[in-house]
Design a protein that fits this description.
Blueprint: E1 2-8, H1 11-19, E2 24-32, H2 41-45, E3 52-59, H3 66-76, E4 84-85, E5 88-89, E6 95-99, H4 102-117, E7 128-131, E8 135-137, H5 145-148
Parallel strand pairs: 6-7
Antiparallel strand pairs: 1-3, 1-6, 2-3, 2-8, 4-5
Helix pairs in contact: 1-3, 3-4
Length: 155
C-alpha cells in the first residue's frame, strides 16, 4: 500500500471523493503542515496553528495510480483560491499536495504545471506542493463524516 496526502478545503467532502475510488483502501481526515503538536479542530480553526485540513489516502498502486488520485484532487476543488474554498475561509482551507516520495513530488508538479497551462483557469494555481509532514488525525466525529450521515456533499 502507498499513501497520499491532499488538502482541498473542508476535509469532509474531499475524504468522500477519495473513499469512492476503487483501489483506495482507507482514508483519514486530519491536520498537517502546522507547528503545534496534537492540534484539535477548534485550535486549527483559529488559524494560529498553521495546519491545513487534509485527507490521508491509503491506496493500492496496482489498482489506482497516483496520477488518478491527482485527477480527483484537481476536480474536487478550485485550486486558484487562496486560503479558502467556497464559503470556507482561512488558512486551514488552503489547497495542498503533500508528497511522500520524490516520484509523487514530480507527478504533483507536472500535473499542476499542465493544469496551469491548460487555460482552464483565469487565475494562477495556488496549490502548495510540500513534503508530507506529521499528520494528526482529526477527532473521531470528523472521520467519514458525510458517509455516516448519508450525505453526498458538504453544504
Amino acid at each position: 500500500m502507498a499513501q497520499a496526502t491532499f488538502a482541498a478545503g473542508c476535509f469532509w467532502g474531499v475524504e468522500l471523493a477519495f473513499q469512492k475510488l476503487k483501489g483506495v483502501t482507507g482514508t483519514r481526515v486530519g491536520y498537517t503542515q502546522g507547528h503545534v503538536e496534537n492540534p484539535n479542530y477548534h485550535m486549527v480553526c483559529t488559524g494560529q496553528t498553521g495546519h491545513a485540513e487534509a485527507v490521508l489516502v491509503e491506496y493500492d498502486p496496482g489498482v489506482i495510480s497516483y496520477d488518478e488520485l491527482l485527477d480527483v484532487f484537481w476536480k474536487k476543488h478550485d485550486p486558484t483560491q487562496v486560503n479558502r474554498q467556497g464559503p470556507d475561509v482561512g488558512t486551514q482551507y488552503r489547497s495542498g499536495i503533500y508528497y511522500h516520495s520524490e516520484e509523487q513530488k514530480d507527478a504533483a508538479s507536472r500535473s499542476r504545471d499542465q493544469l496551469g497551462q491548460s487555460g482552464r483557469y483565469r487565475q494562477p494555481i495556488a496549490t502548495e506542493i510540500k513534503p508530507a509532514a506529521v499528520f494528526y488525525d482529526a477527532e473521531e466525529y470528523h472521520q467519514r463524516y458525510l458517509e455516516k450521515r448519508g450525505m453526498t456533499h458538504c453544504g
